[in-house]
Specification:
alpha+beta; Rossmann fold; six-stranded mixed β-sheet; five-stranded antiparallel β-sheet; 8 helices; elongated
Length: 350
């Protein structure tokens, strides 16, 4: 599969402030590529550069093999969906979707054909005459996407499009967007600060921090094998421990917890352990598994995401442990002591 977008040595400065610094990446044609980062990391600036709304200070944006240097937004083969959608409230659904086509002065027959096809593909058949102000949040989202896709862009840019929706609708729309992108086949570049959105929908994710990319990887590899301390702490839940020193193959935390882990680093500074990597009452004979005692402080019930807040025996180190799904732990109680194990590959040092 060929690359539809290439970003080469891209830098954007606003005076003395560098918003995007020497970013390089490529996106495959028909892929779903997400840029994940906290507010202010530079991800929206990067999107605006790709769209042509901001000029780059250095570097180059290449779409389908052609440099976009000096190409204005309206002549780039991209379209953009913003968080607040920017639908026209005085227009109905059909008029919103047809707006860009009318500006191209296409024939009414062509406009009707493309609008009807797109509304069908986003699941809004029969909504043509509906007032957009009467639609649900998810329906408005689909109108905004249809309005962009009907223009047949090579790339659809989405800038935190689910941010204004309530949590339940966001969960639903994550699946809807993924299925829609797969059906239509248009390349999506998706900006978000929500790791769950990125992990669920993306083929590849770039984690952005302070203007730079920390790691570009598949969702699974990003989660299982974070390359930097920032990625380990930002993507998914993790227990974080400051390390005071190492003695041979033993890591010693600032609060006195000792655990064996051979590290290739000369002086690791921090240790991460994911809550779900911890095994309650591990079976004897497991290889490469470190075991230790914990005391339950409290049980944090959240259905399938229930966790134990604990302390490591003999220390003041606090440790969150995820309970396995579909497992019965009715006998657990505050103050109870348990043995816990963790595979040495799940001890991540930085």
């Amino acid at each position: 599969m060929s690359n539809i977008l290439e970003i080469k040595n891209l830098t954007k400065k606003f005076g003395d402030f560098t918003a995007v610094e020497d970013v390089n990446f490529s996106v495959k044609d028909g892929g779903f590529f997400s840029i994940l980062g906290s507010s202010g990391c530079g991800k929206s600036t990067l999107l605006r550069i790709i769209a042509g709304f901001e000029p780059e200070t250095e570097g180059e944006v290449i779409i389908r093999g052609e440099s976009m240097k000096g190409v204005p937004p309206e002549k780039r083969p991209v379209n953009i969906v913003f968080q607040h959608l920017a639908l026209f409230p005085m227009m109905n659904v059909r008029e919103n979707v047809a707006f860009g086509l009318k500006r191209l002065k296409l024939s009414n027959t062509e406009i009707d054909s493309r609008v009807n096809e797109m509304l069908s593909r986003v699941g809004l058949e029969g909504y043509e005459k509906k007032d957009v102000t009467a639609l649900s949040g998810g329906q408005k989202q689909r109108v905004a996407i249809a309005r962009s896709l009907v223009m047949k862009p090579s790339i659809l840019l989405l800038d935190e499009p689910l941010g204004a929706l309530d949590r339940k609708l966001r969960e639903h729309m994550k699946v809807e967007l993924k299925l829609l992108q797969r059906e239509i086949g248009t390349t999506f570049i998706y900006i978000t600060h929500d790791q769950s959105e990125a992990l669920v929908m993306s083929d590849e994710i770039a984690v952005m921090h302070e203007g730079r990319f920390e790691q570009i990887d598949t969702p699974r590899n990003l989660y299982k094998n974070p390359k930097t301390a920032f990625v380990a702490g930002f993507v998914g839940d993790s227990n974080r421990f400051e390390l005071s020193r190492t003695e041979g193959d033993t890591l010693i935390t600032n609060k006195g917890w000792s655990i064996n882990k051979k590290s290739s680093m000369a002086e690791p500074k921090v240790l991460y352990i994911r809550p779900e990597a911890l095994i309650i009452n591990p079976s004897e004979g497991l290889t490469d598994v470190e075991t230790f005692g914990i005391t339950i402080k409290t049980i944090l019930f959240d259905g399938s995401n229930t966790k134990l807040a604990t302390t490591v025996t003999g220390t003041t180190e606090e440790l969150l442990i995820s309970l396995p799904q579909n497992a019965e732990f009715d006998g657990l109680s505050e103050g109870q002591t348990l043995q816990v194990g963790v595979h040495i590959n799940d001890l991540k040092c930085y």
